[in-house]
Write a structure and sequence with these properties.
There is one protein chain. It contains twelve helices and 17 strands. The chain is an alpha/beta fold. The protein folds into two domains: 53 residues, no CATH class; 291 residues, L-fucose Isomerase, Chain A, domain 3. The strands form four sheets. Strands 9-10-15-14-13-16 form a six-stranded antiparallel β-barrel. A four-stranded parallel β-sheet has the order 5-4-7-8. The protein has a three-stranded parallel β-sheet with strand order 1-2-3, sandwiched between helices.
Length: 365
């Protein structure tokens, strides 16, 4: 049993409910629609209001059950950090990210590290026939191909198949890959397809962004774009977020795939230099969010997409998305770092409530 759903039709039973709360399961208390007095009387007997919900109607009950289901799914998630023994991760990334113990304690998410040697074994054992078939499929779906060769796409298809194999073997649902060392290509195109399939995949070993991607994956039921905050115009209240991995199904996992163009990574030519540029839609409302490094706080902001460009500047990532926000200066002052996670739709209400469920303060801009 995951939750106690209790219809309170008379006074009393406060002591009994307090004993029930000791079972450690959430309580949803309700009575007639819009009438809260008996439920409010009950909570006076409870030592803590944590995981206690008062519902005013059936919609309220449904939303509370949805939030508890999301919390359960998040707690049952396992993340893989692939190539976790690369110096870049150990020296540059790990010091600024929440540790595995902290993430487990706060969110229930389990993290497993996978060494270079172990992942290389998976990479080395993929089927060339499957690699070529998958690359052919990805190339056929592309609207245009500008720089990458078929061989480049095959390299990324190989990486995708190795990732899928180790996720299945380890029974994990999300990942981040530490790359930049031979023989692995950049994972951008692989990440596009993984995210479209409902597998959160964070760039650059960012274990602070990945839990937010997982949370929004369950809340929004759609993939996320994540990227660097490269612009903040305080006059027009516009920010820009840029990265090289753009999901093609931002409207939802069952939505029609948006067309994409195969480009190289940052204008650089090397084996496996492939990204899929996909246009994010002008006028879409979005939710922008990230966790503070110690997971005590969550930054949340609403916005609207103004434009999305395929950038040619090698200093910036392939996609640059300009987003109108309420206050760009407050955005920069209140947030907790560079990478931000973006999904279509306004899910700020759910993030507030999930923050309360997990004991995380929500900071809005």
């Amino acid at each position: 049993m995951d939750v106690f759903l209790i219809f309170k039709k008379c006074l009393g039973f406060g002591v009994e409910l307090a004993k029930l709360a000791e079972k450690g399961k959430p309580l949803i208390l309700f009575q007639e629609p819009k009438v809260p007095n008996l439920a409010l009387d009950s909570i006076e007997y409870l030592p803590s209001k944590k995981d206690v919900f008062i519902a005013l109607d059936f919609k309220d009950i449904s939303e509370s059950l949805k939030l508890l289901d999301i919390k359960k799914k998040i707690k049952n998630t396992k993340i893989l950090i692939l190539n976790s023994d690369f110096p870049f991760y150990i020296e540059k990334v790990r010091p600024k990210c929440a540790g595995a113990k902290a993430i487990k304690a706060k969110l229930g998410i389990e993290i497993e590290e996978v060494s270079y040697e172990e992942f290389l074994e998976k990479w080395s054992s993929t089927s060339l026939r499957k690699e070529k078939a998958l690359a052919k499929e990805w190339i056929a779906k592309a609207e245009r191909i500008i720089e990458p060769s078929e061989g480049d796409v095959i390299e990324v298809a190989r990486l995708y198949l190795a990732i899928k194999a180790i996720l299945k073997e380890r029974k994990a649902q999300a990942l981040t890959l530490i790359y930049g060392e031979s023989p692995f290509p950049v994972p951008c195109l692989a990440y596009t397809y993984l995210r479209d399939e409902g597998i959160p995949a964070a760039c650059e070993g960012d274990i602070n962004s990945l839990p937010m991607m997982i949370l929004l994956h369950h809340v929004a039921k759609r993939p996320a774009f994540m990227g660097n905050t490269v612009w903040a115009d305080t006059k027009d209240n516009v920010i820009a977020i840029s990265h090289c991995v753009v999901p093609t199904k931002m409207k939802g996992y069952s939505s029609k795939q948006k067309p994409y163009i195969l480009r190289n990574y940052h204008g650089l030519k090397f084996k496996g230099s492939v990204t899929a540029y996909c246009q994010l839609e002008k006028g879409q409302n979005v939710t922008i969010a990230r966790f503070k490094g110690d997971l005590t706080k969550m930054f949340v902001c609403k916005g609207k997409i103004l434009s999305c460009r395929d950038y040619e500047d090698p200093q910036l990532c392939r996609a640059v998305v300009r987003i109108k926000v309420k206050n760009a200066k407050e955005f920069v002052k209140k947030t907790f770092g560079n990478h931000h996670v973006v999904v279509y739709g306004d899910f700020t209400k759910y993030l507030r409530r999930l923050g309360a469920l997990f004991g995380i303060e929500v900071i809005e801009a």
